[in-house]
Design a protein that fits this description.
It is built from 14 helices and no strands. It is an all-alpha fold. Helix 2 runs parallel beside helix 4 and helix 2 packs across helix 13. The longest helix is centred in the last third of the chain and has 67 residues. The radius of gyration is 24 Å and the shape is globular. The relative contact order is 0.13.
Length: 449
């Protein structure tokens, strides 16, 4: 009887290189289910959002009331996100996400019932909006971390990119379905459909399983008391989250890069609308074309961003500075055709930068601090979202649409370039000293961060 030996394992240097496919996170079964659940949830959310402003107008007849309802729902993110992130760090992640999704579903069903019975007034609508905003301060970081925990760390950029694509696809589907649903079933049906979408996500969560190599969210029994010493377990206080964020130069730098980009750029719905309808003498149809190109660029950028394996703050800053220079060129566009050529790379660069920044933000902290770091980030981002448009509007009042784009782009590129130069000068002497002492150089990725 002959015996054929098993083939020898391949040598390490002949192993297949790591995948850079933007879809590599979907190799994992739980990630596929999570992406489907998020598509359904996003479609339901956009069905509701599409009709919500119209509903407020029907109730009050006031555009100011519409803005008030949006502000009431966004306000908790400014003041309570750190508390929400702390809750995510203290409680089991899957349970937290499932409960928060179920609560959001209950709010949607309550609103649908009040609308169907014609009992919804402005007071009850504002209360429901505020409760939604409070629950979202827990739900947003819980769901973000849960999705990333389903894949290995090197696949997190892919998971974030796929999430961006799912968000855009759900937005298109939800917006399209809203008109059809409301026309045949009434306004309450949009809220009911959103409630069903939340319940679908709640039903999927218990069956999700992390892939090998994925980060694990560990809750230690008895943890969470402020002032806990290191030998008893991690400090899960709110203050510890703020302290960690403030003491991490790469997170502070990421916040600075994203902040200057958010205030002086990115608000293209405002700046490009004024540019197209003003100096370029276009109409609503022309701006619709620009908006479509922006959406296409965002999708392409999400695909490219999902190919990243080791994103860093330097990558985010370089892309943001490039976006600022493209914004300058857009502000100087002599015609709509030239603007359209520039808008596509602007959107792509912004989307890749967002994916890289989100990956850094969600993988930098240790597991017991990730929720609070996301909470700090949410508060900062909400402040930028509230303060950016007024500041940009004032700049447009002073310099016009072209001037706002040019000045804003130069401020973005100049401030980021200056920061990188200072960073290089401050680290260069350290590198020389380490070389003189015979120390090993720092890894390239760490220096890039």
């Amino acid at each position: 009887m002959s015996f054929t030996p098993a083939p020898a394992a391949p040598a390490p240097d002949t192993a297949a290189p790591p995948s850079r496919s933007p879809w590599r996170s979907l190799r994992h079964r739980s990630m596929r289910w999570w992406s489907l659940a998020n598509f359904v949830s996003n479609a339901g959310t956009w069905m509701q959002l599409t009709v919500q402003n119209l509903l407020v107008l029907q109730i009050t007849g006031s555009a100011a009331a519409t803005g008030l309802s949006m502000s009431v729902q966004a306000a908790p993110a400014l003041f309570m996100s750190l508390l929400g992130g702390t809750a995510v760090d203290r409680w089991p992640l899957k349970l937290t996400a499932a409960v928060s999704q179920a609560l959001l579903g209950a709010i949607a069903f309550t609103t649908a019932t009040l609308v169907a019975l014609d009992l919804l007034d402005m007071t009850s609508l504002l209360v429901l909006a505020a409760v939604t905003g409070i629950v979202a301060t827990v739900d947003n970081p819980a769901c973000a971390l849960l999705g990333n925990d389903l894949v290995p760390v090197e696949d997190v950029p892919s998971a974030i990119g796929v999430g961006a694509l799912v968000h855009n696809a759900g937005r298109l589907a939800g917006t399209a379905l809203a008109g059809v649903t409301v026309a045949f079933l009434g306004t309450a049906s949009a809220y009911a459909a959103n409630g069903v979408s939340f319940l679908f996500v709640t039903a999927v969560i218990p069956f999700l399983r992390p892939a090998p190599g994925a980060a694990r969210h560990i809750v230690r029994a008895g943890a969470g008391r402020a002032g806990k010493t290191s030998d008893e377990g991690p400090d899960l206080s709110v203050r510890e989250g703020l302290r960690y964020f403030a003491r991490r130069p790469r997170l502070v730098a990421l916040a600075a890069v994203t902040g200057v980009s958010s205030v002086f750029g990115r608000n293209y719905g405002l700046t490009l609308a004024v540019l197209v309808t003003g100096p370029l003498a276009g109409g609503a149809g022309s701006f619709g074309t620009v908006s479509t190109v922006l959406a296409v660029g965002g999708i392409l950028g999400a695909v490219l961003g999902a190919r990243l394996r080791r994103p860093s703050v330097r990558v985010v800053g370089t892309l943001a500075a490039a976006g600022g220079l493209l914004q300058v060129a857009a502000g100087l566009s002599p015609s709509l055709a030239v603007l359209l050529v520039l808008v596509l790379p602007m959107a792509i660069v912004e989307s890749v930068s967002d994916t890289a920044g989100t990956a850094v933000l969600q993988t930098d902290p240790p597991p017991h601090l990730r929720g609070r770091v996301l909470g700090v980030w949410s508060s900062i981002g909400t402040a930028w979202g509230l303060g950016g448009p007024p500041a940009l509007g004032l700049l447009m009042e002073t310099a016009g649409a072209r001037g706002a784009l040019v000045v804003g782009g130069l401020l973005i590129a100049g401030s980021i370039g200056a920061g990188m130069l200072l960073r290089h000068r401050s680290t260069a002497p350290l590198a020389v000293e380490a070389k003189d002492l015979g120390a090993a150089p720092r890894p390239a990725l760490e220096a890039a961060a």
